[in-house]
Amino acid sequence: MISALAIMALGAIVLGAALGFASIKFKVHGNPLVEKIEGLLPQTQCGQCGYPGCHPYAEAIAKGEAEINLCPPGGEEGVRKLADLLGREVKPLDAEEKPKQVAVIDENTCIGCTLCIQACPVDAIVGAAKQLHVIIEKQCTGCELCLPPCPVECISMVTVPETVDNWKWKYPVTEIRKVA
């Protein structure tokens, strides 16, 4: 009995190693341009660009089917980075640039319906049915997709104040020199 279990365990290890090797040996790489474009996008998966996430938007940009100025979370800085990568003209953002926000749930109003959890594209909401839900602030991208499904409107968006830890340059160094 013990020897049979040992043989089965050894077989599982050998099979796992073989499958692991096969997955590495035959790994299929995606389009390098799509991967570079996606790396410049903010990964909010919010759909504000008109595509269901950052990867489909990156694919559309790479194919020439989408403009580079459709991502509000990426802002003007994101448009500049995409233009630099692709050798395209910088165009004004085709939406209002918003400050960084995170969702906050009012614990006295939340009924634990889980609709916000289902709507969150980055799994930033934790909770269970009929229990209070909580936002993981570091995961929240501020996409606002959790707001519409909430039947009791217990979720609000709060602007994250800019600090030394989360600030970013808005303009390339060459533009700063021109101003100075």
UniProtKB/TrEMBL annotation:
UniProt KW S-adenosyl-L-methionine keyword: no
Enzyme class: translocase
4Fe-4S ferredoxin-type domain span: 101-130, 131-160
Chain residue ranges for the region called Hydrophobic: 1-23
Record text on cofactor binding: Binds 3 [4Fe-4S] clusters.
Chain sites annotated for binding [4Fe-4S] cluster 3: C120, C140, C143, C146
Requisite cofactors: [4Fe-4S] cluster
Keyword set includes Metal-binding: yes
Binding site for [4Fe-4S] cluster 1: C46, C49, C54, C71
Binding site for [4Fe-4S] cluster 2: C110, C113, C116, C150
UniProt keyword list: 4Fe-4S, Cell inner membrane, Cell membrane, Electron transport, Iron, Iron-sulfur, Membrane, Metal-binding, Repeat, Translocase, Transport
Highest taxon above the source species: Bacteria
Domain 4Fe-4S: 29-88
Principal place of residence: membrane
The EC number(s) this enzyme carries: 7.-.-.-
Subcellular location(s) of the protein: Cell inner membrane
PROSITE patterns: 4FE4S, 4FE4S_FER_1, 4FE4S_FER_2
Function: Part of a membrane-bound complex that couples electron transfer with translocation of ions across the membrane.
Family statement: Belongs to the 4Fe4S bacterial-type ferredoxin family. RnfB subfamily.
Subunit structure and binding partners: The complex is composed of six subunits: RnfA, RnfB, RnfC, RnfD, RnfE and RnfG.
Protein name in UniProt: Ion-translocating oxidoreductase complex subunit B
